[in-house]
Amino acid sequence: MHVFVTGGTGTIGTAVVAELLDTGHTVLALARSDASAATLQSAGAEVLRGSLTDLDVLRTGAAGTDGVISLAFGRDYSDPEALARGIAEENAALTALGEELLGSDRPLVTVSGTPRAPGRAATEEDPLPTDGPVGGRALSVMAVLALASRGVRSSAVRMPRTVHEEGRGGFAGLLTEAARRTGVAGYPGDGSQRWPAVHARDAAVLFRLALERAPGGTAWHAVADEGDAVRDIAEVIGRRLGLPVERVPDETFGPFAPIFAADQPASSARTREALGWKPVHPGLLEDLENLRP
């Protein structure tokens, strides 16, 4: 397949582009900057210049390809307004892509987070929360999945709180950045809350499988580690960086504080059985051993 990819130079996107190319697909990737274009071309992808807000460019990319994987999302999480702006931009982009694919039976694969199910691991059948700081993303994903009734083979890959590679990425990466900045490997709450995780290259395989074979209107869980305790994550970060490990106030983590403090394990049993997905790369705690002081 010739696949249009947005967000192809992020932690997940880089792995997705490589996975597609390695398995015989060709890639047209959106590039906002010269640096992104050069990175994508070096990987073997064709480049389409533009940003997530260039809706006509997105429509052009979707129109000329056999399917779409949409991963791009704004990187400014500094305050609620910036986060809301990124969610609105993503929603407009997904709407434009979906409209271009109507009636074509071509795949549109988007990304979201795993939900929370109090007292147990969340499953693929659990609904995404539509409240909280990122609730708007859930509404966008629900709209994409609803396109299955209008001739789009739409699906969503739900990502855990940490997508990692070489010790970098996701919520664990944010903890690492905060530790380097403050001199303390801090964690919210009592540290017993669990975060699911997946290696970026394992996640990339699931995006490919969803593109190739997922039925329309379906959601899948890219979860390798069902739930690592946040204190255990902080302990590895502290040891690798040579920093003390301490509980810190929840507000240290800004708009993400409620999410950081929540216990949110997730299962991928249905995904593994239905799509044959088998994570093979290191788990989060092992991968964090790659951190350098």
Automatic annotation (TrEMBL):
It comes from the Bacteria. GO terms for cellular component: cytoplasm. Pfam families: Epimerase (PF01370). InterPro entries: Epimerase_deHydtase (IPR001509), NAD(P)-bd_dom_sf (IPR036291), NAD(P)-dependent_oxidoreduct (IPR051783). SUPFAM superfamilies: NAD(P)-binding Rossmann-fold domains. It comes from Streptomyces griseoaurantiacus. Residues 3-213 form the NAD-dependent epimerase/dehydratase domain. Residues 105-133 are annotated as: Disordered. This is SDR family oxidoreductase. One of its GO terms (molecular function) is aldehyde dehydrogenase (NAD+) activity.
